[in-house]
Amino acid sequence: MRLFKSLYLVLVMLFSFTSLHGGDFLMPEEAFKPYAKVNSQMNIVAGVELGDDIYLYEHALKLELKDSSGVSISKIDAPKTTNHHDEEVYLTSPEFTIKLKNDAGVTGLQDITFVLSYQGCSELGLCYEPAKIEYKLSIDTAALDGLQEKIVEPLKSTNSATQEKSQMDQIADTIKSGSVLAILLTFFGFGLLLAMTPCVFPMIPIISGLIISQGEGITTKKAFALSVTYVLAMAVAYTIAGVLAGLFGANLQAALQTPWVVYSFSFVFVALAFSMFGFYELKLPDSLVAKVSSPGKRSGFVGVAIMGFLSALIVGPCVAAPLAGALVYIGQTGDALLGGLALFFMSIGMGIPLIVVGVSAGKFMPKPGAWMTMVTAIFGVMMLAVAIWMLEKVVAPSITMILYSLLGIGFSFFLGVFDNKGHFFRHSVAMVIFIYSVSLFVGFLAGYSSMTEPLGFLKQKEVITSVGSKKEELAFEIVRSVGELDTLLEKNRGKKILLDFAADWCTSCKELDHLTFGDEKVKNKMNEFVLIRADVTKNTDEEKALSKKYGVFGPPAILFFDKDSKLISSKTVIGFVDADTFLKHLNSI
Q: Which comes out higher in pLDDT, residue 147 or 510?
């Protein structure tokens, strides 16, 4: 009975207390609004917004890292506390700057878990339960290396290589510090330069073919409108893919390089080519191809826009330093607006030459007749060539070699390769195409797969050169996961290491292999390094984790490690570079 009386008194007291004050107390989510984010200097900015009459205990507030994988806290800048009833507390909303350092030499974007713990009370007499919040944050560890050197070894003399930044990081810094107008104009200029890269070349026959396929009624004005539509759609696709890659590390373009996507898109070009040959006339609204090639209809703009959007994602998924710099900026700051605008203006710059090509295709298109038939057929052949080029990403080189050969032989017959009565120039072009195509066919039969040297197998017997040495190709060790790479790095400690991120579907990677790595001077210099190739063709989870660890948004990317197997982040090369430039770069390491 005494127990029941005691419980009754407690309940009465609680009821009285809540009757008097219950309406004044804030709920926990109203009293405390914690937050944590990463600023542009790769510092964590965290704090707690306090409600009215709320304070925090200093001793209960903890800022920690959990599962940081080599990243640790070097310093915390905290606001001053106030002595309140013999306790150090924060009476106003405190904000803390947590500076990080790289302890284990990790590289690239690193995911960390930041833990914020706190407890506080109300001036009205109520204390809240302790709270602990975890935040998943992404840190660019390249920005921590310089910070670590300044804090840990301020008196150590370092060479210029440890202080300089890679071109990618310099571009990211430009976005952080420059005015909006200057940033957009700079990236527009980058786009104009990137228009001369292999990634954009396949789009030239695409946009030309789309304009030609509109038929006889095409005007310069409509050709311009269609070209702008194509480029705007392309720019939107690049921007969306870039923002997603920057925010989430998800390379949408790489994900679309799967065989079924490539086969489907190649079929679109084959269907369009055969319609240009006059085998049939595509009609709306049966399929995407019908929208693309329907002449003289307003919905043709929809098809051109779709082709522009898909072309950016499927035809030309290349990474260059300006693109990577924008992605690093987005990943570091979360500022998708400015980063996305920079990518959009870069894409517009890339598209200016395409607009010129499209307008030219409309303006100079010949009148109906035999010449018009010839021009349409030529662009049909170009569409077939683009379809074969797409297949290079997913089939063996020998297959594309025989397809190019058959296409060239057929086209040479169409031009009248054995018709001596034909036009001299036309007959000469046909003969050149025929000879080259037959060479491809012979090379295919011999088991050779070089498009530039189809008869190169004839020279393979000459193994010994004039100086008695053997010509050797560069030998890369292939890795597809972080574990495989770590094993090779440890195995080759004490040597200089070159790591090349590449994929079968990457056009610039093939150009890099043939034009840059194939140069004899470059090849000789590269032999001073242990050569490792990260093959990210299949875009598996292991390959994506490998790319993410080193901050690589897509191939091509070339990274260098010193003799302690530590990444030299300032020497990272993104995108295609010519042989002379790359040789100078190698000599600087």
A: 510
